[in-house]
Design a protein that fits this description.
about 425 residues, mainly alpha, elongated
Length: about 425
């Protein structure tokens, strides 16, 4: 039996070449690894490239034959060697694989294969087709020899890194000079609520450049589409805005700008009531003080501030009662309905009709009043209990003192009786 095992094991091992397979011969990597500086760099970077992980190598992009040791043959035109591709040829070169459903199915079955077609519709693709070699191509966003998966946090197109990747060009004044494009977009974006959600709260679903501008089919949203872009995420707000008096005024036909008129585009900050009324109100840019529009904005601000103040007061009262151990959990849960009404009122504000806001405002004020009464009643109950406790302690203290005095008196009387008996016995 042992002899049979000794014979069969080597035979089985020989039948399993995949378990002991040697890396495929690659003279490209071998030669460039032995070089210095920029010539060596690609061979070092490609080790972490997604294409290398799939078994692809230099020759799949640059042509040639990686199995031949003689460079003059391996890098000959006869072997399809193209060397360093021209920038204008890079999108088409990448598309050779990435636009083929049959080819991509072998590696990434779910990956889209229309990136090149989208790129040709983009501002980058159109300028490249017109001969502008400085515009972004695949390698400017995805890198060259160390291309990583989008989900890899080291990838330049990873959601958290994408703004800086776009900013490498769009924040460069020298590069943007000939296009006459502002270069403050990245700086403004990093002051926005979107960047705060992405960078501070690690919300990778938060909007970045590609969320609004697209990625391969990148095109700046124009006036006619900016509301639709914002509405992809802010659906209910967009629906309210469509009903508003501002929609036709700020539409493309009127030369308006939709959402960005009030909220800006890249530097979108946390909305507040201060946008409606006050020194920094955005409404004052169009509506003069004393006008009907300014008055309506002031009324809306008053309604929102009133509900917010009422809910804050109620919450403070309930928190104080809870701190004293009073049972106010039901009122605290009820208060959440009031906060939801405040959110609804802020949503309805985008229709810019006060009557739309009044329903959630009135409902929220009702919740605020009810929960405030519950909190005040709990605090009153706390005071009553404290007074009752104080009275109880007072009477208990008096009782204790009375008992103590009675005991002392009994001890004193008992001691006098014993002394009298002792004196009588002495006389006898």
């Amino acid at each position: 039996m042992r002899a049979l095992v000794v014979f069969l094991v080597p035979v089985w091992l020989l039948a399993q070449p995949a378990l002991f397979a040697q890396p495929a011969k690659d003279t490209c990597v071998e030669c460039h690894t032995a070089m210095d500086g920029d010539l060596q760099k690609p061979a070092l970077l490609i080790k972490g490239d997604v294409h290398t992980a799939s078994g692809l190598s230099c020759a799949d992009c640059h042509g040639g034959d990686r199995l031949i040791d003689d460079p003059s043959v391996a890098m000959s035109k006869a072997k399809g060697f193209i060397g360093k591709p021209a920038r204008t040829a890079i999108p088409q070169l990448c598309a050779k694989c990435h636009s083929s459903p049959d080819y991509m199915r072998r590696y990434k079955p779910q990956q889209r294969v229309d990136q090149f077609e989208l790129y040709k519709t983009s501002i980058h693709g159109k300028r490249l087709a017109a001969g502008d070699e400085t515009v972004a191509t695949c390698i400017d966003c995805h890198s060259v020899h160390d291309i990583r998966a989008v989900k890899d946090n080291q990838s330049p197109v990873y959601p958290l890194r994408l703004p800086d990747t776009c900013g490498r060009c769009h924040a460069d004044a020298a590069k943007m000079a000939k296009y006459k494009i502002p270069t403050n977009q990245l700086a403004e974006y990093k002051t926005s609520v979107h960047w705060a959600a992405l960078s501070k709260r690690s919300d990778l679903s938060a909007p970045n450049c590609a969320s609004c501008h697209g990625n391969h089919g990148a095109k700046p949203p124009e006036v006619e589409s900016v509301s639709a872009v914002c509405g992809n995420c802010h659906v209910l707000f967009a629906q309210m805005y469509e009903k508003s008096v501002h929609q036709p005024i700020f539409s493309a036909a009127s030369g308006g700008g939709g959402c960005i008129v009030c909220h800006s585009n890249h530097g979108i900050h946390q909305p507040s009531v201060a946008m409606l009324a006050g020194d920094k109100a955005v409404c004052s840019g169009c509506h003069e003080v004393g006008s009907a529009g300014a008055k309506a904005a002031g009324d809306m601000a008053g309604l929102l501030n009133g509900l917010d103040t009422a809910l804050t007061r109620s919450e403070s009262t309930l928190t104080q009662a809870d701190k004293y151990g009073m049972e106010v959990s039901e009122a605290q849960v009820k208060l959440l309905d009031g906060k939801e009404d405040l959110v609804k009122a802020r949503l309805m504000m985008h229709s810019f009709r006060i009557e739309d806001m009044r329903k959630p405002i009135d409902a929220g004020m009702g919740v605020a009043a009810e929960t405030l009464r519950a909190g005040q009643a709990a605090l009153h109950d706390k005071d009553v209990r404290r007074i009752g406790l104080a009275v109880s302690v007072f009477f208990i203290s008096i009782t204790v003192v009375a008992i103590w005095l009675l005991l002392r008196r009994q001890e004193s009387d008992g001691s006098g009786y014993i002394e009298a008996q002792a004196s009588q016995m002495t006389k006898e």
